[in-house]
Amino acid sequence: MTQSTLARPASLPASLPASPPDRVPVGDPVHTPFVPVPSPASFIDSPASRILAQPLMLGLFLPIQAGGWSASTLPRTTDWSFDYNAGLVKQAEDFGFDLVFALSQWLPKGGYGGVFDGHALDSFMTLAALTARTERIVLVATSHVLYGPWHPLHFAKFCATLDHISNGRWGINVVTGHRAVEHEMFGWQRIEHDRRYELAAEFLDAVQQLWAQPDNFTCHPLQSSWRLNGAFVTPKPRYGRPLLVNATGSDAGIEFAARYSDVVFITSPAGSEIEAALAALPEHTARVKAAAARHGRPVRTLINPMVICRETPAEARAYRDAIVAHGDEGSFQRFDSDAHAWRGNAAQRQAAAARAVGGNISIVGSPEEIAAYIVRLHRAGIDGVQLSFFDFEPDLRFFGERVLPLLREAGLRH
């Protein structure tokens, strides 16, 4: 039996060696023995290695929540139901996409209001169900690892099981949660920002040890309330562990991602306007990758463009204008985020209405223009795009038929 008290300081001592593949400290935080936890990318035949070998990873951000990603009432097919999203995943897989994501949210009755009325499937359960309906695409579920239901033993066992069902195509987007209402729904006040990452580090250290330990494992973390006494998980993941993703932009979040993640889901520091984003992203992506390099680890960056594409530039811009013209004021008024607040004066209302389009960045144009924007994102240090659409099914089909061949011609897709 391995018995230890798992303790991970907020930052590792500078004297600790770099450790690819991943190594997790167990025991005293100064004199720390390590147990190897290999990354799935260290196995040449793993699904993770296959997708990370692409010049540009291609993903789809599923609309498993009402309203998808756009606060607009313009008519569309986009729907939060399982069958609709399963159809999108099949379509993406047929086009050769590498991975799909889904968000996780916990909201009171009425959600954010308007089209964001709160109806949403659970990310973990939805992606778990899709393991049996897919063959090649990697499935990445978003999980708030600090919220009430999760214990490291549950999490490690469930993820290892799904890793086997999917033949190594399982991934987790580890998030800590930030909206006060979500923490309150689970019975506590919102945890301070940086402390959330300290607690998540203890959680993920234990989970990785359960995936890697050949014997029973005991740990009593310094800060978290859960305990492990003689715990064991079998089967072990097929390729060391599932793909790990983190969505972040803060100092503490980037440090967390640098230590744990294979892929870092970033946002544009300059907002959604594409030219401003392209100017800001090289420095931002370099910062994220440098943080990982200090830990002896490579990471890939992923960003979420909202794609509005039509055969001609004029048609694409008319489509965007129609989405904005139908901006859903009900959603803006109740959205729990300063970035989406409905401010009141004309200029602020116009800016909020423009965000009806959705996505961290938006790219609008003909197939040639969209491909050119994606090429420029790649040159700015972006290793993958996690695409959203307004009307998902027809817009995804158009992207696959008209834009994807151009990305192959540009050398971004094998």
UniProtKB/TrEMBL annotation:
Which Gene3D superfamilies is this protein grouped with? Luciferase-like domain
Taxonomically, what lineage is the organism?
Bacteria, Pseudomonadati, Pseudomonadota, Betaproteobacteria, Burkholderiales
Pfam families in alphabetical order: Bac_luciferase (PF00296)
Q: Which GO terms describe its molecular function?
A: monooxygenase activity; oxidoreductase activity, acting on paired donors, with incorporation or reduction of molecular oxygen
Recorded superkingdom: Bacteria
Matches recorded under InterPro entries: Luciferase-like_dom (IPR011251), Luciferase-like_sf (IPR036661), SsuD_RutA_monooxygenase (IPR050172)
Q: Which species expresses this protein natively? A: Paraburkholderia caballeronis
Q: Is this entry keyworded Manganese?
A: no
Q: What is this protein called?
A: FMNH2-dependent dimethyl sulfone monooxygenase
